[in-house]
């Protein structure tokens, strides 16, 4: 009986400890490491050049879209926030927009190498990237022309799946066209063509032709989250089996 009581206490200790660790590690899972490896391409500005491409039509989910390429565009940087879109909900449903698969908020160059990004709070609205900090010095160093919210358009299912795998801290490369688009029901959206604008209309709308997750962020909190989840699951299973067998 004494061994059983000790085992039950040990299992309870593991269960509640893992519950606490799950909460803490989940909260901190997106913290940026102090010595995060940064790829050389993430320290460069986006590449943009005029392109002579004819507008084209895409049919998706019974809706026809007209896409008008304006510039060839390549962006590599660090994802600090994102929103994946479901055309069955919210404004995407109202506007019949199933082409815009995701919005990625991305920083590059000085905003990576000269900033402690943990000083900032980044989050995506439905069509916006928002950021703030209480650190005045960090705010003054932050380059507003080295962050962008990117509306990613894709009709290729492979590209859509790859985009859907994005997590905060990923360094990604996206290639395609800065493009305006509209659908046959009257919805339309234009793209920004400069990194210097802000506010409404300042987002880049990219028709994606290539997309890669080049490097995912690794930190101790994410590793701890995995171990905490394993410990939580194992101790919970032990408790369930023991109760079913009448041991506990």
What does this protein structure show overall?
The chain is α+β, with helices and mostly antiparallel strands and 248 residues long. The chain folds into 2 domains: 51 residues; 178 residues, no CATH class. 30% of the residues lie in helices and 33% in strands. The strands form 2 sheets. The chain has a 5-stranded mixed β-barrel with strand order 3-4-7-10-8. It has a two-stranded antiparallel sheet with strand order 5-6. β8 and β9 form a beta hairpin. α1 runs antiparallel to α6. The longest helix is centred in the first third of the chain and has 27 residues. The protein is globular, with a radius of gyration of 23 Å.
Distance between the termini: 11 Å
Supply the number of helical segments: 6
Going by helix content, strand content and strand pairing, the class is: alpha+beta
Can you tell me the residue ranges where pLDDT is under 50 for at least 5 consecutive residues?
A: none
Write the SSE topology.
Blueprint: H1 2-28, E1 47-50, E2 56-60, E3 63-84, H2 90-94, E4 100-107, H3 110-113, E5 120-124, E6 129-133, H4 136-141, E7 147-153, H5 157-163, E8 171-183, E9 188-189, E10 204-215, H6 220-244
Helix pairs in contact: 1-6
What labels would you give this structure?
alpha+beta, five-stranded mixed β-barrel, two-stranded antiparallel ribbon
Structure at a glance:
The protein has about 250 residues and is an alpha+beta fold. Helices cover about 30% and strands about 35% of the residues.
